Each structure stands twice: as structure tokens, then as C-alpha cells.
TrEMBL record:
Catalytic activity: tRNA(Arg) + L-arginine + ATP = L-arginyl-tRNA(Arg) + AMP + diphosphate
One of the GO biological process terms: arginyl-tRNA aminoacylation
Name assigned to this protein: arginine--tRNA ligase
A Pfam family the protein falls into: Arg_tRNA_synt_N
Example of a GO MF term: arginine-tRNA ligase activity
Enzyme type, top EC level: ligase
EC number: 6.1.1.19
Record domain Arginyl tRNA synthetase N-terminal: where: 4-92
Domain DALR anticodon binding: 235-350
């Protein structure tokens, strides 16, 4: 059940409550369904009870209590909880959760976790003239834009041209932002102890963005190492493996499909489901390190199950293989999108 399908299921629940005389209110044309916010639970949440409270003449939580059993009876729904003033939090059953999540990621592609409509909020990010601060500000701007926020970046002085050449670091303007400009606080990470530009764009940006802002980054050759101890290598290698699995499956004559029953990939599903919440939190807290760490979690979960995706020996491709391939492709898509937000390349081959 994708969010679009679940939205229709929510509307059907409203219609059943209205038809049963439990709720006197017009059935809305659409019901918003999205990943739960802070304090939420389950796979998806809807604010339809808050939307119906005024026309129904009832408190939102009472409306939610009326809708809850109608929604809990729907096929593919495992549990419905009520949180906050009346949000309905929906947990899908295991097989349906996997199918819905993978289908949604493949449909949204690298915009999975993005907000579709602008919020109308304007944020001005002003940083010191220091390489880590400039790279962090640029990345935070990308994260905020993914959440529908309009952003302008500036720096206290003109950035070193080498930062743009080697790291792709840039700002919209430089100089004082002016007293009237609502500059964002908190974009003063611990400065880089040495010049990261010799590491190149990908390793240099990762070295600056992977540590939390209050931690001193390490600028060294370990970020270039092609081995498992390097988290950047694991993330990029996992993405390359996802793409290789698609190529190898095509050679065997099958493609991925988000079907029920791929099986036994709970940590990977959890990591993929957490991606929208991670993007929102990373933008809200101005913390690109949250995204970097989540990408490592996703990569490690994919690498742990990637050996189960393709048939072994004379085994014929089955529905389970197609489902596992779709899951691996979804993971590769999330890794590519996350790396892009960090300004790092996601290679097809590694």
C-alpha cells in the first residue's frame, strides 16, 4: 500500500464512519498521508481527524477514535494508534510494509523523502569564511530545500577559489548579511584542522560533513582508503553493488518488482523507512552528519543481505528474487539521493 493507496484507504474509512452515522461531516477529496513526525509511530500518519474536527463539531481526538476501527479493519493495516491531538498513526503488516515502501521509493526516485510543495519559509544561512563552515552551509541549504524551504547562503568573506574547484563549495553571496537579514544560528562548526582540498571533492566533503558540528574533523588519507574501515567507501560500494545487482539480474533475464514476500531484510527496511525522517531532522537541526550516519546504516544493511538477491547456481529466478532485487534497487536509490545532497558522487562501478 503506497501513500496514495493508503490515502484512499483513509478516505474509505471516513466514508464508512459517515455512512454509519457516527460522523456528520463531508468526506474530503484527499487525505494527507506521510511518515510520522516527532512523537509519532508506525509507518505512516494522517491528520484527517484534525481536518474533520471543525465540520464534525467534535474534538480531533474524538474524531480519531471514531475513525480508528474503520481504518484498522482495512486490508494490509496491522495497527492504528492515536498520538498528539488526534493524529492517526498507521502500521502496515510486514509484507505489505515492504511492498509499499519499495514501491514508493522507486516511484519517487532520488526525491524520496523530499517535500513536494514549498513551505513559504525563507532561511538565510550565514557562515564564517572557513572551509568546513562553507561546505556545511551549502549542504544544509540543500537539506532545507529538500524540505520545501527557500534558502540563501552567504559567507563573511569571499571563499577561497580552491574550495569551489576541489570541493564544489559555493555560496550565494559574501560579506555582511546586514542587520535586517535573519541569519541562521548554529552554523559555526569546529573548523577543519588542515586543508581538506588535497582529498578531492568526495573524500574532502565526507571528512567535513560526517562528524557532528561540535566534533573536530579528521583530515587524512583514511577517507581515500578502499576498505571496509572507511564508511564513505562502504556507502559508495553499497550503491555500486545495488547497480551491479540490477545489471546481473538483467543478464539472467529478470527485473525487480516490489512484491510481497521478499523476506528477512528488517534492518534494511527500517533504514529505508527512516530516510524521510532523517532528512527532516538533518534540515531542522542544521546537521548533515545525521544524513551521513544514516547512509552508513543503510549501506551496511544492504551489504548484509546483497548475497541473497540473485539466484545461486542452477536456481531459477523467483518472485522472492524479484522482490529482493527491487529492495536492493530502492536502497541504491536512497544512497544515491543522500550522497547527492551531501555533494558526493555515487559511482555505478567501484
Amino acid at each position: 500500500m503506497t501513500p496514495v493507496e493508503l490515502s484512499r484507504t483513509v478516505l474509505c474509512a471516513v466514508r464508512r464512519a459517515v455512512d454509519a452515522g457516527q460522523l456528520v461531516a463531508p468526506v474530503p477529496e484527499r487525505a494527507q498521508v506521510s511518515p510520522p513526525g516527532p512523537g509519532g509511530r508506525g509507518d505512516y500518519a494522517t491528520n484527517v481527524a484534525l481536518q474533520l474536527a471543525r465540520p464534525a463539531g467534535r474534538p480531533p481526538r474524538q474524531v480519531a477514535e471514531i475513525l480508528r476501527p474503520h481504518l484498522a479493519d482495512a486490508e494490509g493495516v496491522s495497527r492504528v494508534d492515536i498520538t498528539g491531538p488526534g493524529f492517526l498513526n498507521i502500521t502496515l503488516d510486514g509484507a505489505e510494509r515492504e511492498r509499499a515502501l519499495v514501491a514508493e521509493i522507486l516511484r519517487r526516485a532520488e526525491r524520496y523523502g523530499f517535500v513536494d510543495e514549498p513551505t513559504g519559509e525563507l532561511v538565510r544561512l550565514h557562515t564564517p569564511r572557513e572551509v568546513r563552515a562553507v561546505v556545511t552551509g551549502q549542504t544544509v541549504a540543500r537539506l532545507l530545500r529538500s524540505q520545501g524551504v527557500l534558502v540563501r547562503t552567504s559567507c563573511e568573506g569571499e571563499p577561497d577559489p580552491a574550495w569551489a574547484l576541489s570541493l564544489g563549495a559555493a555560496v550565494d553571496a559574501h560579506g555582511s548579511p546586514g542587520a535586517a537579514a535573519p541569519a541562521s544560528a548554529g552554523l559555526r562548526p569546529v573548523p577543519a584542522p588542515e586543508d581538506p582540498t588535497p582529498l578531492g571533492r568526495d573524500a574532502g566533503r565526507w571528512a567535513l560533513l560526517h562528524p557532528a558540528a561540535h566534533d573536530r574533523p579528521r583530515i587524512g588519507a583514511e577517507h581515500l582508503a578502499q576498505r571496509e574501515s572507511n564508511p564513505l567507501f562502504r556507502v559508495r560500494y553499497a550503491h555500486a553493488r545495488a547497480r551491479a545487482l540490477s545489471r546481473n539480474a538483467a543478464a539472467l533475464g529478470f527485473t525487480g518488482a516490489p512484491l510481497q514476500g521478499g523476506g528477512e531484510a528488517g534492518p534494511l527496511l527500517d533504514a529505508l523507512a527512516a530516510h524521510p525522517r532523517t532528512l527532516a531532522a538533518a534540515a531542522r537541526h542544521r546537521a548533515p552528519d545525521r544524513l551521513a550516519r544514516q547512509l552508513v546504516t543503510t549501506a551496511d544493511a544492504l551489504l548484509a543481505v546483497q548475497h541473497t538477491v540473485l539466484p545461486l547456481g542452477d536456481e531459477k529466478p523467483s518472485a522472492a528474487h524479484r522482490s529482493r532485487l527491487a529492495l536492493a534497487e530502492a536502497a541504491g536509490t536512497v544512497l544515491a539521493g543522500g550522497l547527492s545532497l551531501l555533494g558526493i558522487d555515487a559511482p555505478e562501478h567501484l
